[in-house]
Amino acid sequence: MDDLQSMFYPKSVAVFGSAGEGKLANVLIGRLLDGGMEKVFAVNPKGESVRSAEGYPSLLSIPGAVDMAVVAAPAKTVNDILEDCGRAGVKAAVIISSGFSEAGDADGEREIIATAKRHGIRFIGPNCAGMVCTHAKLTATLETAPPVGNISIISQSGAVGGAFMALSANDGVGIAKFVSYGNGGDLTVLELLRYLREDDKTRVIALYLETVPYGREFMRTVRAVCAVKPVVIVKSGRTNTGQRAALSHTGSMAGADAVCDAALRQCGAYRVDTLEDLFEVCKGFATLPPVSGRRLSIVTNSGGPGVMTVDKAEMSGLLIEETSDEVKDKLREFLPSFAGLRNPIDLTVEGTDEHYGKAAATALSENDSSVMLYIGTPYLKAMPIARGIVSAARETGKPIAAVMQVGSDIDESLACLRNEGIPCFQSGERAVSVIAAMAAYEETRLRASEPCIETVEPLGYAFSSDEGALLEPDAMALLRENGIPVPDFGFAKSEDEAVMFAEKIGFPVVVKVVSPDIIHKSDKGGVALGLSDEPKVRAAFRRMRDICEGEDFRGVVVYPMLKTGKEVIIGLTDDPTFGPVVVFGMGGIYTEVLRDITFRVAPVSEQQARDMIREIRMYPLLRGARGEAPIDELALARTIAAFSRLSSKYPDILEADLNPVFLYERGVMAVDARILGRQK
Prior knowledge:
Strand order of the largest sheet: 8-7-10-9-11-12-13
Mean pLDDT: 92
Shape: flat
């Protein structure tokens, strides 16, 4: 943390690179001086000065101490510059120069990393757009200089970070820190996140990623940050084409987006789709008090926008409850008889500043937050309404998001709200999206003490050889040993054993072929259902043996004929970024047709498993629809959690699935299993 503190708060900066007009180093020096940095030096072979920044031919010729080096020189010179920094005691560097691993020169990047490490220099880059710390008057970037504020942004793309700061400047919402870490040769997103977690100037962290680095360590770091302050993320590369673009841009492989989305939610980050969404959600966190619940009141002077805001609010998970009789009586004391009181509270075009202020304050007595919409006309002043909104915010201390459109003094009115810390949005829909994000964060923060990934000690190995897949009886035995409900079964290697197990289990039974050469048993006639007596079991055994002619026949497995229930699938797969991932969704025909599935990075807790169950689209069917009995949700959650631990307990398990799992009113049963192993 001390290393980063000196990087973000330097007192003197040396900029390396050509000082000619329009050159990167020249522009960077201008940005530093314009931002208020007093001690700036220009280092270039000719020793040329730039404005008030004195020029020197080398770092070692500068009298006095230099805290930071900003390098915009050719890639081939960067290592020598770092060597000079080491001799001069410079401990922080921003390497804007490109031409390293992103351009195929991984050796050159490794060289500068080694040099910096040897001299104890921490650096950002290479191939980055620089950094900003507004509270230290540090603007070491080519991007837009933002106003001072409390949003910090870490961006894998300098251009995205620059666009974010441009939005910030246009909206008057300030930035605390900006870092474009480029190739991440030294300082990584993990270290930057840990620093910003402790930074008292940062209230919310915006993060733009093309790839998620370090998988599980990233998740644990974000979880720790989210216990203190929100992290809002744009992760690009959602589509296959987008993932290929991220690959070519960063030189890193992007994982499956559905898994990434689940991982980000699992660790408490709030993911948005666009740069505008990223900025507006951060704006809400930066300006509003915490949103402690989902009950929302809406005050409007126009019916249509109010209704659209309600629709978006409900789709976003907010609660638009009808105004209570008690509050309606209070509203009637000062609102005209034609005002709508149900929620939205519709003041109509005759709404005044007093109406707005009192209505919002009164409605907030039974709600957690409010969206206030004023759709004005060009010939009327909006400032009185702005003052009414300010009055409600001061009186209640609760979050109020404003929408102000049209008015003869609209710019002054928006400035008034902004100066009072009340964010304005282009529409009610955007405002409620921000409120919903803030409410979701507060719910997540309350659970931040729970680990986002369960810790499970490995037990050993599931496979005794490189067979590729466990035989079904071995797989079912492994499941049973790990607390996953499976039917009674017997592994019969002979006809007589098959009959013995059938009699022990009780007729009717199911007989399935056991052969490492037959994966899809039903397709080859390797499953016999509802066998009600000994002759049928014997005939089934002989048929199974016959279909394996020329194959490796090991025997049959005998099960009771179970009552069918609702079917789900539970799976384990291996993600290149996050490792083992547990999958849950509807089974049977729904698996392929609806793709109604959800993911978590494994292993998961029972509570996380419950969350998975409740977020699939078909959850109402499991809960009991049209008079049907609900399934045993607790038993299913325990089964998902137990199954998710297998990859951690047995590191040689690569993939596994239970399909189907029958769900009952009491209990669940995994009736088929497939477990694949890693190559040793």
